[in-house]
């Protein structure tokens, strides 16, 4: 990547490299220190006419008037190399988006970032038309555009009246199908439960793989709206709702919709093969700082018992979630596979779990130690203290021991604590030197045999001189275990995760 250099007055050197089709210049970020006026953009666009190597352009720190945006549109129409684009600052507005969208429709873009561009409903209308004509455009970022709101999201989905904003009134087709969009980000865009319902009502909803709605005040009704969306979004792989103000009732409604997400694997991939083949698409679900509590946690447990597949569940920052709540979730993960799911085929109900910033403590540690298939556990900032450290050390001391009580001579990995754990984050959990001695000692003796990464920073014990000796002893016993205890430090051999 080439970066604009501080103090440089023009982009002439960059234009020469682009015109010369420099094979090393594939990604370009033009920083604010560079001059990038309308005339500069015109020179840039002319140089791009013969360039086949530049694939990424980022110049969001520079304003771009509508007539400048039209130059970028011209570039997109003729450039077959450009794949990722972010242009214009917060003054770009609907006028800039409308001009740019003309080029997007005929472009080879795969990623378009229009975050913080002053985008509203009229711009959304132009984008909807472009999305219907651009099969390569798979990722659209509209973050931090508060003027978009529910009306703009509805228009983007192509299910509303295109003339509602006072434009020409020609409107959109009643249903506009996005040709290739699979990743949609509308974070901090003033969207409410009504906007989510509009998205759920669009046929495009079923085509999405990733949806990020972070920072929108969805409220308790938003949980039910997201639930409706989940019923439709059979191909969804990642849903992020961080800081969406769902509350406990909203979380409960959302969790209830997680169960019936079993779909045809070939349907999700778009391929054609045996129509009888069915499976689950595990969902990455981020519910951080959503105001969840005991009702939400109970509903999540019921969803998992009902067969919900969650590749990752993030509950970080939900301070009303108690130690008992997380322990009950751990018990479910350790004992229940759900109806119709055989142990040999189901894998983990939740492979990655983040309960950082909740009240998870000793009870949670003990229960989660037996969670089947749990590979990553983050408890950053949880009040573990001496009790949590003792529970962790005790479970680690007995891990790796197999049981043969499954019948037919099969061994049960779940009978041994932490059977699949690869990453453990217990930073900032109040562990003193004695606590760390107990945990490190159990690890040195072989606890959690598959563990590759341990984070223990921001604990009182790591600031003591004796910690270095303790760490050295663990490193001698487990040379493949990477230990992170201070920013930039990795005092173990770095092991690539699976």
TrEMBL record:
One of its GO terms (cellular component) is nucleus. Keywords: GTPase activation, Leucine-rich repeat, Repeat. Its main location: cytoplasm. Transmembrane segments: none annotated. Signal peptide: none annotated. Coiled coil: none annotated. InterPro entries: Leu-rich_rpt, LRR_dom_sf, RanGap. GO terms for biological process: nucleocytoplasmic transport. GO terms for molecular function: GTPase activator activity; small GTPase binding. Pfam families: LRR_6. It is found in: Cytoplasm, Cytoskeleton, Cilium axoneme. SMART domains: LRR_RI. This is Uncharacterized protein. It comes from Volvox africanus. The lineage of its organism: Eukaryota, Viridiplantae, Chlorophyta, core chlorophytes, Chlorophyceae.
């Amino acid at each position: 990547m080439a970066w604009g250099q501080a103090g440089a007055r023009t982009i002439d050197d960059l234009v020469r490299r682009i015109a010369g089709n420099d094979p090393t210049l594939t990604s370009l970020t033009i920083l604010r220190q560079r001059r990038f006026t309308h005339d500069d953009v015109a020179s840039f666009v002319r140089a791009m006419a013969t360039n086949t190597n530049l694939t990424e352009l980022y110049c969001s720190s520079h304003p771009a008037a509508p007539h400048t945006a039209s130059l970028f549109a011209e570039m997109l129409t003729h450039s077959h190399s450009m794949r990722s684009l972010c242009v214009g600052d917060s003054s770009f507005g609907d006028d800039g988006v409308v001009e740019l969208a003309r080029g997007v429709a005929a472009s080879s873009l795969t990623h378009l970032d229009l975050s913080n561009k002053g985008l509203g409903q009229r711009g959304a209308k132009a984008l909807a038309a472009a999305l219907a004509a651009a099969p390569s455009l798979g990722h659209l970022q509209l973050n931090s555009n508060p003027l978009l709101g529910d009306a703009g999201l509805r228009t983007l989905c192509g299910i509303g009246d295109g003339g509602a904003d006072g434009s020409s009134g020609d409107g959109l087709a009643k249903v506009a199908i996005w040709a290739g969009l699979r990743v949609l980000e509308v974070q901090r865009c003033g969207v409410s439960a009504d906007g989510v319902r509009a998205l759920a009502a669009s046929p495009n909803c079923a085509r999405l793989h990733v949806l990020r709605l972070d920072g929108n005040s969805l409220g308790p009704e938003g949980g039910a709206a997201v639930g409706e969306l989940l019923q439709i979004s059979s191909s969804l792989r990642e849903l992020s709702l961080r800081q969406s103000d769902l509350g406990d009732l909203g979380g409960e409604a959302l969790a209830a919709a997680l169960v019936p997400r079993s779909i045809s694997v070939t349907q999700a991939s778009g391929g054609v093969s045996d129509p009888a083949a069915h499976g689950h698409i595990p969902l990455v679900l981020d519910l951080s700082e959503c105001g969840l509590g005991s009702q939400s946690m109970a509903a999540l447990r019921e969803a998992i018992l009902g067969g919900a597949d969650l590749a990752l569940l993030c509950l970080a920052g939900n301070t009303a979630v108690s130690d008992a709540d997380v322990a009950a979730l751990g018990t479910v993960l350790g004992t229940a596979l759900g109806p119709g799911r055989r142990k040999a085929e189901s894998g983990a109900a939740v492979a990655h779990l983040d309960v950082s910033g909740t009240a998870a403590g000793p009870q949670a540690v003990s229960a989660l130690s037996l969670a089947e298939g749990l590979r990553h556990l983050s408890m950053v900032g949880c009040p573990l203290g001496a009790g949590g450290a003792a529970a962790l050390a005790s479970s680690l001391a007995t891990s790796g021991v197999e049981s043969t009580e499954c019948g037919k001579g099969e061994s049960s990995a779940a009978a041994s604590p932490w059977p699949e754990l690869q990453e453990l984050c217990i930073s900032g959990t109040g562990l003193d030197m004695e606590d760390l001695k107990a945990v490190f000692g159990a690890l040195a003796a072989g606890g959690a045999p598959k563990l590759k990464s341990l984070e223990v920073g921001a604990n009182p014990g790591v600031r003591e001189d004796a910690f270095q000796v303790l760490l050295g002893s663990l490193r001698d016993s487990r040379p493949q275990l990477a230990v992170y205890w201070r920013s930039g430090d990795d005092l173990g051999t770095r092991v690539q995760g699976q």
